[in-house]
Amino acid sequence: MNTSGGSFIRLGNPSPEINQVATSAATQVRSGLKAQLARLWRYGLALSRSRDTAEDLVQATCLRALERAEQFEPGTRLDRWLFAILRSIWLNDIRSRKIRLGRGLIDAEEALVVDGAREIETNVSAAEVLRALGKLPDAQREAVLLVYVEGYSYREAADLLGAPIGTIMSRLAAARSALTKPTRQGEN
Amino acid sequence: MTDPHKSTGLANDDARLAAFLDGEMSETERARFLERLQNDSELRKRLESFAPSGPQIRMAFDELLNDAPVDAMAARLARALDVKARRPRFAWWTRAVAAAAIAGVIFASGFAASRWVDSRAGPETEDWRQTVAEYMELYSPETFRPTLPEALRAEASAVGDRLGLPLDPNRLQLTGLKLERIEMLQYDGAPLGQLGYVGETTLIAFCILRDGEADAPLATSMRGNFETATWAKLGRGYMVIGRAPPGKIAEVAGDLMRRF
Q: CATH says A17-106 is which class?
């Protein structure tokens, strides 16, 4: 998967086959983006813990995906390709920019909670779990989202995050352990 | 499948429990673990407390999907798709075009307009500026990573030729900022030069479009998250845009306007 760096597109006379593949890839990207918006936003929120940043991340991801649509391999998963793009933008552009400009990354430790007005209607335990997830270290929260929510295997998560499988396991175990504690205390 | 938790030397029981619950153990590992579970009541208790967290996490994150501003995001996507449909041949230009100047290869630039116009004057001339502002969101100092001095001189000369403006280094120098990059882009068939300046807390792009637009005085405004200063003179539109302390953009623009 190629998501880093700029691509060099020469105007010339590419073969018809190459054109066909590129067109098919571009069509799949164009037609598939909309269905991914909500999940991309959720990933952006898990990474940034800011709703506005998450929305900006999704827009930047869409723009970049459209520009690089010909790099998408038809037959592979569009959502995984987009997640990798979003992550790359977060790490390389937005996160580093915020740090450089001295702006806080996190507005509040509970930025992961559902919207205030809706919270009353929300399942209480879901709200509690979200609060606990919001307090997890970033790397744990990201691993948890990818594996438990987005269905990444340990190997797939390790590949995306560029970390050993053992690290993914530790992060997931630590997150599960953190979520387990309140229940156990409650039992005492 | 191998036993990844074994091969990494990770013998932590919590990690094993997670791998067990997540179906990430090999058959051998799983059989061994089940055997241990039968004889270890503490481990069984821990497993019971661990088990609900997976489904709980999924459920909690699914709640968040309801909060996603899907309509707003879909509208922004639709605008981007609309632009792409009208202008099908784009390249991701951020770095590509700079290389084009060196390689002498003609590239299609990836300039997407939020509103398509074939303008020569009037409010439509704002479109290319808006487009630059949208792309500016994606820039980081790495976007304007340093170019070798000789390459920078070559680019200045090539871009100057296309714009019909001599771009010698003295004319481009700005106090407290380093000119790191010069790129030749195009917008609606018109040549667009972009000069990237980087300072300690500043990232500024100075853009020149040779589009025949009518003369206009210096004006400042906000586009998206960016302060911009624009003017037009002798058939060329100019814009200074970037992330900079308040007032810096106008100061830089005033400085450049005297030279262009």
A: mainly alpha
